């Protein structure tokens, strides 16, 4: 081991410095020197005596124990196979042949060997011992192999290799301390990952690196978590020793195939110094090791410095939707085409789930969780399902995309596939559904179906494309194969099948075939599995995959007849044609200047333009006497809301991408016969120029202009973070109501039964009675049921979902083992969220907040009851206002208390606005009027 440097200051020297510098400056100098000595000592304590850089035929040995070696002395070595200890090579290197590298380290080379190479399926290891003049200079284990970049590909031992990775791994992720260095646990964990076809991970502790060496798991490692914040990088000279020690520690591990210097640091600010700093770090690293490619700035570096164009993208979680990967892939492949580098995506997917299966609620995850599964009837099941779907879609689409864009060289979904926070052994690791999905998506030879048309009428033909990706772990070409595709009902009956034959598929290439499956015309409504299997010439199963389709007879989509024929305003005629397709009879009007006396008025899709809006007074009068309006999808650019009883805008953050995963509220009439799945994404209408399939059921959603615009409304389908936007809004006015829908149903009636069914339901519901506000006499459970029932529909209400993990820390990351279930709401007041989900401003438990909700009393009420918890360590106060009037005096809740608070009132049936005001430590659990 290297000796720590010693600083010797004589009494005379100390006295001289004291006279020259003065006491204060001298003491600063002493403290600085002590810190430097401490830092060097800490780093040196981890530095091995030797570092070995290998090739396929030799090894370069760098002596890091400089104090133990006299330059010019002969060095002898022995290389033994590990673990059996068989002697592989030995010899002596003359001192004259030992030079120092540009780091000042003595270097000896051992060449012309014929070792067994280290590779994931055969991780051969060796151990070298070096001595000089009878003094041991060290012993280190290593492996012979090459890993390099050539053009847009990675080559392991001379063979192109697709990296299939998992970046989030223990330790440092809430793994119990007892398992941090437990070799049995580490080995069990790595074996589990390998069983899911993972060939690369990110982790850095020595015990983990050793096991990865032994089991054949490739690594990208380095200073990944040390990006820092802000545009100004540290001084290179201050960090040079840190990076040198880091590389010396990693260098001998054959599993480490890529160095990472930083993560997501700021290159874009005008005064940023990070690129210059990391270029210095990169150049210094290259003086030591030229055998590994380097990612200089993971995620944000665009390939500089280094040899790899690395990307972090989270379409389908922080932004965009599940179909946005083609546009992202196109954008970054264009960059890599200019740099000529391989493209890796070392972070994507997100969709973080706890060990229990809930989506995480810490930090920026809370608002995104609601966007994807907020109103789901079974939140844990929905979270697991969406996590799996996103992993499958992103991973497989990037492998399919490599057909024309060979730069795609590594995919590493960044999410929690496994649960280990409560594990006591490897057998305790929780395997999540997404892990099984990953196993499929990471098959070395993958048969991947591409199908954006998954809702069928019975009797229609399912059309799909099959992509065969050959990334065989042994690098073998694939001969002729046959793909069999079967459509299977819930009871296991095959209702349709066909097969296609692929010709030869060379290694590291893709092959495509089109397929069509007719469906029987007499099929009932249901979900059907489409199972895809690939067989080789010997009829052995090579790959398997599957997806689901929804099938329904056309009778399922027919609208229910109403007692009164609706009136349709539809200048283009498109809506009239669609209504005829689902059996709706209607009369027509050519103008909205004169409204019907009563009944249902349907405003056709995109029928409202400047100058064609109805008069607000006429609309209010029509609604007051019991009239009903169904306004179908309108264009964002031409939308005006002045004619409505409430102001709902179509403001949207760019880019304007179609919305998927619309969240339905509890409503049997509007969603009769439909499931949550039916509103996720609809059949493709075409492709954008960037290749993005047009599958979004909603283009632009509604947002209330203010909280008061929610007073007369029910939100029946929501989207966006914290469910802040609405796809279906019902505004109640007098005896009537307006239903606003932004679903793109009209254009899909002919080819998508889910779109047709929703359109029929919208008409049936709008023509019916309905029109009731939220019944506040019923108990509101302020947990996930607040999303499902519609008690919480907008951040404008000032209420923020709460969980045990939510600690008012803003950037708190929580723990994987924590309880992330929504268990109440806190009174925050005015807040918003950033484009990727951060709550703004950060809630402050020391301040007073407020929350509002709206509804109607169905019967007389004499008291208002709140079940709550004061989660703080100080007494808190709670006050109640009804329709803006303070009710009694604020009530004090002791610190840490869980109690029921009652406010005496005297309220007749009818609409009411409830406003609670109090400390942000108060967690509202239940409310009701009695």
Identify low-pLDDT runs. 1-45
From the N-terminal CA to the C-terminal CA, the straight-line distance is 76 Å
- Spatial extent as radius of gyration: 33 Å
The 3D shape can be described as globular
User: Approximately what portion of the residues adopt beta-strand conformation?
Assistant: 25-35%
Helix content: 10-25%
**Which structural category fits the helices and strands?**
alpha+beta
| Biggest sheet, spatial arrangement of strands | 18-17-16-15-14-21-20-19
> What is the mean predicted local confidence, pLDDT?
91
For the biggest sheet, the summary is:
8 strands, parallel
Q: What is the count of helical runs?
A: 14
**Quantity of strands, as a count:** 53
Protein described:
It is a single chain. The chain is α+β, with helices and mostly antiparallel strands. 19% of the residues lie in helices and 31% in strands. The chain has 14 helices and 53 strands. The strands form 13 sheets. Strands 18-17-16-15-14-21-20-19 form an eight-stranded parallel β-sheet. It has an eight-stranded mixed β-sheet with strand order 33-32-34-35-41-40-39-37, sandwiched between helices. Helix 9 runs parallel beside helix 10. The longest helix has 23 residues.
